[in-house]
Design brief:
The chain is of the alpha+beta class. It has nine helices and 21 strands. Pfam families: LytR_cpsA_psr, SH3_3.
C-alpha cells in the first residue's frame, strides 16, 4: 500500500510540475506578445469590447506582409472568427483585402490600407464600423510567424488542387505541385499566398479559411496540446495580440468544446454583394453592398441560413453582380448609385472632410457651382459624393439644395 502511495504521490508531483510549466509558458507568452507591439504606430487607441465569456466573441486575425522594410506593412490576410459559447459553433470569415470602405479619419480606401495607416488598432475600428459588430480580440502575425506556427505543429496535410507557380523575389517564390502532400510552414505560406488562377484573390481567401480550419483541428489533438509550451515559444517573437491570461484560458477551454468539424467558412463581402470596378485613381477595387454584407454576417453568426461561397456557384467562376442598389448609409455607395438629391456648392470652395467636424482631416475640396450627390444629412453637415467619386462631409452652410 505504501508503495502505491509513493507512486501516486510521484505522479501528482510530475503532473503538478507539468501544469505549472504549462501555465507559466502561457503567461510568459502573453506577457511578451502584449508588450511587444511591432505592428502598432502608437497613433491609434485600441477600441476592443470586453468579453464576459457567455456572449458571442469575435477575434480578428491579421496576416501582415512586412517584407519590405521601406514601406508600411498592409494586412495581406484578414480573418474574422466568430464563436458562440452556447451552441459551440464557429464561423470564420475572410475579408477581401480590396474591399473599398471608409477608414476612420482617412476617407475611402481598400480595407487593407487601414493596417498600413494605423496598425491593428485602426483596422479593428474599420472592421467594427464596416460590419457594425464588436471585435473583442485580435492576433497579428507576419509571414515568418505563420510559417513558424505550421512548423511548430509539425506541418499540415493539404490537397493542393493545382500547380502553383509564381516567381517573386527569389526568397518568397511559390512552387507547389498539385496533389495530396504534407506541407512545411514555408510551403503552407506559399499555399495561402498564391493568387494565380481564374478567381485570383477569391480562391486565395478560400484557401486561407481552409488552412485555419486544418490548423485548428490539428491543435485540438492531445499530441499538440502537450506541445503547446514549445509552440508558444517558437511563435512568440512574431505575434502581437491583446489577449490576457484569463482571456486565453477562457478561450482555450471553449476551444476544446467547439464543433470545428462543422465550422462555417465564408467570404466578406459575399459574391452577390460586391462589384469589381475601379476607383478615381484607376485602382482595381471591390465595391461592397454594405447593408447586404452586414446582414449576411449577422445572419451567419446568429445561425441564420447561409451558403458557403464554394457551394454558391462561385467555385466554377460564377458571375458576380456589377451594380448594387443605393443604401441609406454613412458609408460608400456603389458607383452605380448616382440617383439622389443634388446640392450645389455656394461658397468659393468647401473642404471635404472625413468626419462631420471642423477638426477632422481634409481629404479634398469642392468648388463653387459644383453639384454634389447628397447621401445623408447630419447636424450642420452633409455626407456627399463628388462628381469624381469621392465621399466625405461638407458644411451644410456652404451648399444649397
Amino acid at each position: 500500500m505504501k508503495k502505491w502511495l509513493r507512486v501516486f504521490s510521484f505522479v501528482l508531483v510530475v503532473v503538478g510540475l507539468f501544469a505549472g510549466y504549462y501555465v507559466y509558458s502561457m503567461f510568459s507568452f502573453l506577457g511578451s506578445v502584449n508588450a511587444n507591439k511591432p505592428f502598432s504606430n502608437g497613433e491609434n487607441l485600441l477600441t476592443t469590447a470586453k468579453w464576459e465569456g457567455t456572449e458571442q466573441v469575435n477575434i480578428l486575425i491579421m496576416g501582415v506582409d512586412s517584407r519590405n522594410k521601406d514601406e508600411k506593412p498592409r494586412s495581406d490576410t484578414m480573418l474574422l472568427a466568430s464563436i458562440d459559447p452556447v451552441s459551440k459553433q464557429i464561423a470564420l470569415f475572410s475579408i477581401m483585402r480590396d474591399t473599398y470602405v471608409n477608414i476612420p479619419d482617412h476617407g475611402q480606401h481598400k480595407i487593407n490600407a487601414a493596417f498600413a495607416n494605423g496598425g491593428p488598432e485602426l483596422l479593428i475600428d474599420t472592421v467594427q464600423q464596416f460590419l457594425k459588430t464588436e471585435i473583442h480580440y485580435y492576433v497579428a502575425t507576419d509571414f515568418v510567424g505563420f510559417a513558424k506556427i505550421v512548423d511548430a505543429i509539425g506541418g499540415i496535410d493539404v490537397n493542393v488542387q493545382e500547380d502553383m507557380i509564381h516567381a517573386d523575389d527569389g526568397v518568397n517564390d511559390i512552387n507547389l505541385r498539385a496533389g495530396q502532400q504534407h506541407l512545411s510552414g514555408y510551403q503552407a505560406l506559399q499555399y495561402v499566398r498564391y493568387r494565380g488562377g481564374v478567381r485570383a484573390d477569391f480562391d486565395r481567401t478560400e484557401r486561407q479559411r481552409e488552412m485555419v480550419k486544418l490548423v485548428v483541428n490539428e491543435m485540438k489533438t492531445p499530441s499538440q496540446l502537450i506541445k503547446l509550451p514549445t509552440i508558444l515559444k517558437e511563435v512568440k517573437p512574431y505575434v502581437q495580440t491583446n489577449l490576457g491570461g484569463d482571456d486565453l484560458f477562457k478561450l482555450a477551454a471553449l476551444g476544446l468544446k467547439l464543433d470545428t468539424a462543422n465550422m462555417k467558412t465564408e467570404q466578406l463581402p459575399q459574391d452577390d454583394a460586391l462589384s469589381e470596378t475601379t476607383n478615381m485613381y484607376g485602382e482595381a477595387i471591390l465595391w461592397p453592398d454594405i447593408e447586404a454584407t452586414r446582414s449576411f454576417f449577422h445572419e451567419t453568426v446568429q445561425g441564420g441560413a447561409s451558403t458557403d461561397t464554394a457551394d454558391a456557384g462561385t467555385a466554377g467562376g460564377g458571375s458576380r453582380q456589377t451594380t448594387t442598389q443605393p443604401q441609406e448609409s454613412s458609408q460608400p455607395q456603389t458607383p452605380a448609385a448616382q440617383s439622389g438629391p443634388v446640392v450645389t456648392v455656394s461658397g468659393e470652395y468647401v473642404n471635404l472632410r472625413t468626419k462631420p467636424t471642423t477638426d477632422s482631416a481634409v481629404i479634398g475640396k469642392v468648388y463653387e457651382g459644383q453639384d454634389l450627390t447628397l447621401i445623408e444629412k447630419l447636424d450642420g453637415w452633409y455626407y456627399i459624393k463628388t462628381p469624381d467619386g469621392m465621399y466625405g462631409y461638407v458644411s451644410a452652410s456652404l451648399v444649397t439644395e
